[in-house]
Design goal:
mainly alpha, 11 helices, elongated, single chain
C-alpha cells in the first residue's frame, strides 16, 4: 500500500473512531455537553488533530446524521432485496425507520437536529455533501420500491402523486419517532401497544392509496424488519 493510501486509511479510521466516541459521550452526557475539546481529551488527541477532522461541533453533528443515514440505507437495501411485493417492502421500510429510532436513539436524534438551518450554516460543505450523497442513495432505494408498487398496480390514489404520498408517510413516521424519543411514556412506546401501531400504520398507508394489510401479515413484516435492523445494529456494536 502506498504511503498516501495508508495515510488516507488512517485518517478515515480515526474519523470513525471519533464518531463512535462522540456517540458514547452524547449517550452519557447529552449533546449539549459535547465539545471538540472534550472529545479530543477523551480520545487522547490534540485539539488540532480533532479540528483537522471536524471544523466545529456542528460539523460533527452532520457526520453523526450521515452515520444515521448510512445505517438506514443498509436497512432499506436489505428490505428491498427481500422476495417481497413492493407494498410489503414499503411497509417494511416504514417499520425500519421507526425501529431505528428505538435501537439508535442518539443517532436518530442527531439526524433530526442536523436538519436545522442553524447547524447546516456552520458545517463544512464537504460533510454536508457526503451526507447528502447517502441520503440520495436512500431516496433511490425508496423510489425503486415505490415504483415497484406502481408497476404491480398496488397504488390507487388519482388525487395524490406517489411522491406526495411518500412525503406524507415520512412525516407521520418522523412524528412517531420524535414522540418516542421525547418520552418513553408516549402512548405507543411500549411493546404492548404494537397492535395499535400496526393498525394506525395500515390506516395511514391505505388512506394515502396503498393496500390495507391484515394484522397477521403486518405482524410478520414487522418481525422480519426487527430482525434485520437489530442484526445490523449488533454488527455496528460489535465493531465499535
Amino acid at each position: 500500500m502506498r504511503t498516501s493510501q495508508r495515510k488516507a486509511q488512517e485518517v478515515a479510521e480515526r474519523d470513525q473512531a471519533l464518531v463512535r466516541l462522540a456517540l458514547d459521550m452524547i449517550s452519557r452526557d447529552g449533546f449539549h455537553n459535547l465539545t471538540l475539546g472534550k472529545l479530543a481529551q477523551e480520545a487522547g488527541y490534540s485539539k488540532g488533530t480533532v479540528y483537522g477532522h471536524f471544523t466545529c461541533r456542528e460539523d460533527l453533528l452532520i457526520e453523526l446524521s450521515a452515520e444515521s443515514a448510512r445505517r438506514q440505507l443498509r436497512y432499506f437495501q436489505a428490505i428491498a432485496d427481500l422476495p417481497w411485493t413492493g407494498v410489503r417492502a414499503l411497509y417494511g421500510m416504514a417499520f425500519a425507520y421507526m425501529r431505528h429510532a428505538v435501537v439508535a436513539p442518539v443517532l436518530f436524534e442527531c439526524s433530526i437536529t442536523a436538519r436545522t438551518d442553524a447547524v447546516c450554516r456552520l458545517a463544512s460543505e464537504d460533510r454536508l455533501t457526503r451526507r447528502d450523497l447517502v441520503e440520495s442513495q436512500m431516496e433511490q432505494v425508496v423510489g425503486f420500491v415505490v415504483q415497484r408498487t406502481v408497476s404491480e398496480g398496488a397504488y390507487a390514489n388519482p388525487d395524490v402523486s406517489t411522491g406526495v404520498a411518500v412525503d406524507a408517510l415520512r412525516a407521520y413516521i418522523l412524528g412517531y419517532a420524535a414522540m418516542h424519543l421525547l418520552s418513553r411514556r408516549f402512548l405507543w412506546a411500549d411493546a404492548e401497544q404494537l397492535d395499535d401501531r400496526l393498525a394506525v400504520m395500515t390506516s395511514m398507508m391505505s388512506g394515502l392509496g396503498w393496500p390495507r394489510l391484515e394484522k397477521a401479515e403486518l405482524a410478520e413484516i414487522h418481525q422480519v424488519v426487527v430482525d434485520v435492523v437489530d442484526g445490523i445494529t449488533k454488527e455496528y456494536e460489535a465493531n465499535s
